[in-house]
Amino acid sequence: MSEFHFLRPWWLLALVPCALLWWAIWHRDDAMQVWRGVIAPHLLPFLLQGEERKSRFAPLHLVAVGWAVSVIALAGPTWQYEPAPFADDTAALAIVVKVTPSMLTEDVRPSRLARSVQKMSDLLALRKGAKTALIAYAGTAHLVMPATIDGEIITTFAQSLDPKMMPSDGDVPAAALKLADQALAKAGSGSILWLTDSVAPEQNAALANWRKTSRTKVRILPAVLPGEELDALSAAARRIDADIERLAADDSDVESLARAAKFVTTGGDQKSDRWKESGYWLTPVLTVLLLPFYRRGWMIKTANQS
């Protein structure tokens, strides 16, 4: 809020005629004002029998507040820049793939790893022009490709992944998620898609520690069929506040992932030279100020009564 200012500050000058108009109406409606110089003040309440004391919350007060709020809205309050007009409107995505012998199991045809890569390829086709990074892990985690808008090169590298090419066996998803965070930090911000078939129990503590230091949204596409493995993976997902997207025979899972990944809040490093208009946020205030005028008898006199 240190950069708070008005886009059209000259509109604030309208507060002056609004204040003068309010003062004129207020004194016109004050029946005692005419007689104050003629009759002693302590006698006025007894001589002007029909006059009631003005309410603290008279309609005219609400009108004055409404005028002031309207003028402030027209002045264009702002405190932040609009996103750059040519900045990416789709958040970056870091895809983390488990590359272990268990991913070669063929209960999911043609194999868990191959099926995961196919789903990844379909997802990238829906995210053309969006930044994507690829991380592979087994006993160690490795950044295969930093964030790039070239989905085809991501698919090419993913199709080449094989447990035999990993330096060591094991399961270190926490290290892979940390690498994904680093890749997203360089890309601006985004979310993580985790392709795996299981999580080693000894990794629970490491994953919990990672979650304490990261707010990155994680979605898991499990390369397993319904059963004990999926139940165990779902339990692990809950521990790190990750969402499970069930593997589907059609493209419904990929389409759901594409929609969810697109609208993750993006980073704000890219700014335009235009300030964001924020006066419209005062519209609900004006609506609330108008509500009492729907009450019967709640009005402002527009002419003197004889």
Would you kindly provide a written description of the structure presented here, covering whatever features stand out?
The protein is elongated. The chain has helices at residues 15-28, 44-47, 59-75, 112-126, 151-159, 173-187, 204-213, 228-239, 252-262, 283-290; strands spanning 5-6, 77-78, 81-83, 92-98, 132-137, 141-148, 190-196, 217-222, 243-244, 271-275. It folds into two domains: 5-82 and 275-294, no CATH class; 92-262, von Willebrand factor, type A domain (Rossmann fold, 3-Layer(aba) Sandwich), CATH 3.40.50.410. α1 packs antiparallel against α3 (59-75) and α6 packs parallel to α7. β7 (190-196), α7 and β8 form a beta-alpha-beta unit. The strands form three sheets. It has a six-stranded mixed β-sheet, with helices on both faces. A two-stranded antiparallel ribbon has the order 1-2. Strands 3-10 form a two-stranded antiparallel sheet. By secondary structure, the protein is an alpha/beta fold.
What are the key terms here?
single chain; 306 residues; alpha/beta; Rossmann fold; six-stranded mixed beta sheet; two-stranded antiparallel sheet; 10 helices
Question: What would you say about this model in short?
Answer:
It is built from ten helices and ten strands. The chain has 306 residues and is of the alpha/beta class.
